[in-house]
């Protein structure tokens, strides 16, 4: 799987303001910014992202995904 493919899958299931992906095709590191994360704890946010991947984690299309998740307001403070 390419970074663009993974980005498209996540974006199709989650309204994202920003996504960056780095990886080798199986192991990925993502930074994801979405207003849908408002009021959610880290684990809830991660589960939301994993839900967009469906069974791709179980079928090994995506072997590992490490992520940092931010609301738009949190992301703005990271960029300041």
TrEMBL record:
InterPro entries: BolA, BolA-like_sf, BolA/IbaG_stress_morph_reg
A Pfam family hit: BolA
Superkingdom of source: Bacteria
Family: Belongs to the BolA/IbaG family.
Name of the protein in its database record: Acid stress-induced BolA-like protein IbaG/YrbA
Source organism phylogeny: Bacteria, Pseudomonadati, Pseudomonadota, Betaproteobacteria, Burkholderiales
């Amino acid at each position: 799987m390419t970074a663009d493919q993974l980005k498209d899958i996540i974006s199709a299931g989650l309204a994202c303001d920003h996504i960056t992906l780095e990886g080798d095709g199986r192991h990925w590191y993502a930074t994801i910014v979405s207003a849908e994360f408002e009021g959610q704890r880290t684990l809830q946010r991660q589960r939301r992202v994993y839900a967009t991947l469906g069974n791709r984690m179980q079928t090994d299309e995506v072997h590992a995904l490490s992520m940092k998740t931010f609301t738009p307001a949190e992301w703005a403070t990271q960029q300041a």
